[in-house]
Amino acid sequence: MEQSTFIQQASTEKNKVSKSAALQEPRVIRYTLTFIALAFLAFFIVLPLASIFITAFQKGVDVYLAAITHPDALAAIKLTLTVVAIAVPLNAIFGVMAAWTLTKFNFKGKNLLLTIVDLPFAVSPVIAGLVFILLFGSQGLFGDWLFTNDIKIVFALPGIVLATIFVTLPFVARELIPLMQAQGTSEEEASISLGASGFKTFWYVTLPNIKWGLFYGLILCNARAIGEFGAVSVVSGHIRGMTNTMPLHIEILYNEYQFSAAFAVASLMSVIAIFTLILKNIIAWKSKSS
Predict the structure, then answer these.
(1) CA-CA distance, 178 to 74, in Å (whole number)?
(2) Running DSSP on this structure, what letter comes out for residue 195?
(3) Where does residue 155 fall: left (phi above 0), alpha (psi -120 to 50 degrees), or beta otherwise?
(4) Distance CA 215, CA 204 (A)
(5) What span, in angstroms and rounded, lies between the C-alpha atoms of 228 and 231?
(6) Which helix (H) or strand (E) element contains residue 189?
(7) Cα(276)–Cα(226) distance, rounded to whole angstroms?
(8) Tens of pLDDT along 15-42?
(9) Are 284 and 115 in contact (CB under 8 A)?
(10) What is the pTM of this model?
(11) Which contacts (CB < 8 Å, 24+ apart) does range 42-51 have?
(12) What helix, strand, coil percent values describe the chain, rounded to 5?
């Protein structure tokens, strides 16, 4: 016991010494590095973000409101939120199941499953969209059967949802896997040994331990789902008022030289991004304090 206390005190003193040594760098170096970091953030993040709002309101509030309340814009917003409402919960379920399987059990093919989970990070979203076209398009593998049964996948909501699920699939799982690995299996084993069922063990033991990591993964998944362009662009068909999400609607407006309208819709996405960032930081702070 005394040895353990001594080791902890030694480690604390070592951290304090390292921290104080880092703070003793010359002021010139500290101020220079701080200035470079702030300048980089200002040039690549703050300035572009500010230009979005400036251009959006350049022609006045009336033009801005007209742009975001246009029927095509409202349809794009509604479609985006619909896709998010479907894709994010499904990825949450899959992410929890995949993380549970990969961290709580040992089985053959475990590394293969982990590789498949990471696959969307390696595959270009455009390629992912093309794969769905080759599978569910009119000339695709299942095209004749889908046409015979009057089922639409590509150039419709199901295709957009599938593409979005594919590109956002790893976020929840990848956030939970290291967290659940660090927690181990001792608490679940104790719960089961006391007679709790698998569901009760998950609901009352595992889920409370991973809730902040799960929320964090859901926020990242939600942000990517809202902003996804490449895969959705391939499978959507760019049908105005029907299959255009917010990013696709912004592209069309910009290509038609309706810059104020394009930046008006972009400002809504920027607001969502800022809100997501704030929420992410709150959850990160909560997870550290809990």
Answers:
(1) 39
(2) T
(3) left
(4) 17
(5) 7
(6) helix 186-193
(7) 11
(8) 554 555 555 678 888 889 999 999 998 9
(9) no
(10) 0.82
(11) 49/270
(12) 80, 0, 20
- Quote the CA–CA distance of 136 and 142 in Å, as a whole number: 5
Residues across the chain: 290
Q: Tokens representing 52? A: 């979005």
Task: Indicate the pLDDT class of residue 156, thresholds 50, 70 and 90.
Answer: very high
Chain segment 107-155, per-residue pLDDT in tens: 888 888 888 999 999 899 999 999 999 999 888 889 899 988 989 999 9
Quickly tell me which residue has 């709150």 as its tokens. 282
Cβ-count burial of 67 within 10 angstroms (0-12 exposed, 13-18 middle, 19+ buried)?
Answer: buried
Q: Read out DSSP for 10-26?
A: HHHHHHHHHHHHHHTS-
**Exposed e or buried b per residue across 80-114, where buried means at least 16 C-beta atoms within 10 angstroms of its C-beta:** beebbebbbebbbebbbebbbebbeeeeeeeeeee
